[in-house]
Amino acid sequence: MDQPQLRELEARCIQEEQPFCTAACPIHVDVRAFMAALAKGDLREGRKVLDRTMPFPEIIGRLCDQPCRPFCKRGEIGDPLAVGRLEHYCVTNTQTVVKLPKLPAKGGKVVVVGAGLSGMTAALDLARKGRPTTLVTSFPGIGGRLRDYPETTLPPSALAQAAELLFSYGVVLYTAVSLDPEAIDGLIATHDAAYFDWDEIAFSQLPFAANTPDPLTLALDRAGCFGGGGTADGSAYSAIKQVDDGRRATLSIERFLQKVSLTAQRDKEGSCATRMVTVTKHYAPAAEILPADPASGYTAAEAQAEAGRCIRCECLECVKQCVYLREYKEYPKTLIRKIYNNQAIVQGTRNANKMINACSLCDQCATICPNDFPVAEVVRTTRGNMVDNQHMPPSPHDFALEDMRFSLSEHCSLSRHQPGTASSRYLFYPGCQLSGSAPEAVKRVYDFLGAQLQGGVALMLSCCGIPAHWAGQKELFQQTLDAFRAEIKRLGNPTVITACSSCLSIFKEFAADIETTSLWETLDALELPANAQVRSTTSAAPTTPLTLHDPCTARHQHAMQASVRSLCAKLGLEIVENPYNGELADCCGYGGLMQFANQPLGRKAAMVKAERSPLNGLAYCAMCRDNLVAAGKPVAHLLDYLFPTPEGGNPLVRPNPGFSQRHENRARLKNELATTLWQEADAPVAAHKQIRLIISQEVLDLLNSRHILEEDVQRVIHHTEAMGQYLINPANNHRLACFRPVRVTYWVEYEPTDQGYLIHTGYSHRMQLQEDKQ
Amino acid sequence: MSTFSFLETTTWQCNSCGLPLQPAKVTATYLGGSFNVELMACPQCGFILVPEDLAVGKMLEVEQLLEDK
């Protein structure tokens, strides 16, 4: 990612866009911050917000015609906020809090002719910018039409305060000046730029034929002359329009004096559009709070209550749903900036590594985002770059990649035509996680497909390579995909039927030339299996409705989703949809290898998905099912009802097998199928695998969380018992031993018993230790 | 290079040498980073004890720090 790509991506996230009120306000008052302050009852903070943007808060706060109000999103759920009344309440109950600084004096003398609110604004802003500014009026004082307001609306003190402010910035004021064309010509001649306030000056008073000012720049036909304010454009008098014109003219004069373009990049000036998106449907409607006594305005409590109706418009639509963005307190724009900065570090700590490796890459955020911000794509590309640059930490992905290698190894993988056939029209691809989680279901599905589909059904036990894809291991992923492609070709290009939505998503994206479909669409096109559990006819069928949990990798696989629902209907399973399903489905924590890079976050993700509905669940992704069950939610797999076990049992509470059992299940499945269906010889059992372990559930859970397999434990014991090289605790006869097969040193505390080795604990580290020889 | 001490009395003894463990100077290395530490080890065969709380605590912390360098 380079700087231009970063900017382009950042621009797609609209969280930092102006809220609707601020965009509509010609001078872009931060109404959201103003409301937040008033809602807390912090008037001083509210006044600060006004002081920063309004030229004369004590005037504008009383007269603002609130052009923002029609754009207030509160209007969709009640009445728009009473912005004007709240501004009035604030300025009548506070004094100036912030006085903006005056920039160092510079050249470029400016005369402002006419001292209405527009001229006053221009004079104040120009003086603040360090321009020597003279304000000239034919009246005895400043204000123009402001002087016509009754004292109850605009007390004279407000104008006096404005005059004081102008003086404090060094504005030179001339009152009661005769402003005929000749006098004005003289003023133009003795200054570098001039602004005419139409609230006081008429076109006929100008010493040149005045055109209608350019609406963007307010420039008149004579160079350096600008005009605005008043009601010259035929509209009713608007205080905020006076300020807008005065401010616009100031910027034009600045540019004129600096000899730069008067027109470039002025689209955000004045009232403008915003790309902000704020969804209001989750807010309760609330009507405007009206003052009990309209003549005296809001009381403190009324003002606070009215400001409290502000919903603080922002987007954050993705963050509201994504456990990962919430965990790291980022939205896509800030996330991408951190990723960019992390990549740019040459020497030092790359603090964002863990964050980069914790994203589930599930694409839910991009589906929700009005601008399809591609967080997953950026994160995945970044991981690939980290691998290429050798900046990828080994620990987050090692375990999952080893698991993948094991699935691809001869211990677990198998690829055969249907027994007794030499060609295949179809190939069943259960995927490594279903084989690890429910190997018996794989056998039953394969039997069924073999009997029902014509033309031969091959079987392939393997891994699609998605862990390598998620880990940014491009080379390993490509090798896996190439091997899959070659094997499919060898089998005569059968249609691949996948039970796993992740495998299907990988094949559809990276092997589009191979014909693929989901197991669910295939089953939906066939008669239900004979033993399928139709509700109310069997004891193991669920007695309450289930909520369906679509996997995140099926997000865009609509035909698959439809078939799953059709199968549920045929089975008589009562399904209640939850709102975060289908295209909006959450990840269960496995996606993107989240649960390996940030284990607690993986658990949180599973909890969030599980808690989208109070009902028990039904999943059709083996990882979703097992992770949701581990999160404490009763969830069955659809295959549990389509192909129930002959032994019965409640599929909602079948435990998560854990990593070791998954390994064992895959290897056993391969061996059983190879020996029973293809009459191959039993695979030899490695010596260490023959070591019998006794492990309590508590220790098993501990080993699981530490990513230590039972086979790792067996290796340690096998190695150390053979050598007699272990530590011993004479107090309890426990032994403590370690073994480092490749990159990780495993430690096991155990005790030999007649039934096998009783395991007390296991832990590991990656550091290598060497005693310093004296 | 400073030395970090993780010495603690232990009931573990070396099985093959039949000796109690004693403090030893050890070099710990990971991803090109290297530290001097003091750990309990067998004075004869050099079997170094890494206690569980050290492996899942400080050691893991340092490993992750080095991984982000």
Walkthrough of the structure:
The complex is a heterodimer of chains A (774) and B (69). Chain A is α/β, with parallel strands linked by helices. In chain A, 41% of the residues lie in helices and 11% in strands. In chain A, the strands form 4 sheets. Chain A has a 5-stranded parallel β-sheet with strand order 3-2-1-4-5, sandwiched between helices. In chain A, strands 6-8-7-9-10 form a 5-stranded mixed β-sheet, with helices on both faces. Chain A is elongated and about 115 Å long. Chain B is of the alpha+beta class and 69 residues long. Chain B is built from 2 helices and 4 strands. Chain B has a 3-stranded mixed β-sheet, with no helix packed on it. In chain B, strand 3 and strand 4 (33-41) form a beta hairpin. Chain B is elongated and about 40 Å long. Classes of the chains: A alpha/beta (774), B alpha+beta (69). At the A-B interface, strand 16, strand 17, strand 18, strand 19 and strand 20 of A face strand 2, strand 3, strand 4, helix 1 and helix 2 of B. Strand 20 (768-771) of chain A pairs antiparallel with strand 3 of chain B.
Summarize the SSE layout with pairings.
The complex is a heterodimer of chains A (774) and B (69).
Chain A (H helix, E strand, L loop, with lengths): L2 H10 L7 H5 L6 H9 L3 H11 L3 H7 L19 H10 L17 E4 L3 H12 L4 E4 L19 H13 L3 E3 L6 H9 L3 E5 L27 E4 L10 H20 L41 H8 L9 H5 L1 H5 L4 H13 L8 H6 L5 H5 L6 H14 L6 H14 L5 E3 L9 E4 L2 H6 L1 H14 L4 E5 L4 H5 L3 H17 L4 E4 L2 H10 L5 E3 H6 L21 E4 L8 H14 L3 E2 L17 H4 L1 H12 L5 E4 L2 H9 L4 E3 H5 L15 H19 L16 E2 L2 H9 L4 H14 L3 E3 L4 E6 L5 E9 L2 E10 L2 E4 L3
Helix pairs in contact in A: 1-14, 3-4, 3-11, 5-6, 7-10, 14-17, 27-28
Chain B lengths: L2 E3 L7 E2 L7 E9 L2 E9 L10 H5 L1 H10 L2
Parallel strand pairs in B: 1-4
Antiparallel strand pairs in B: 3-4
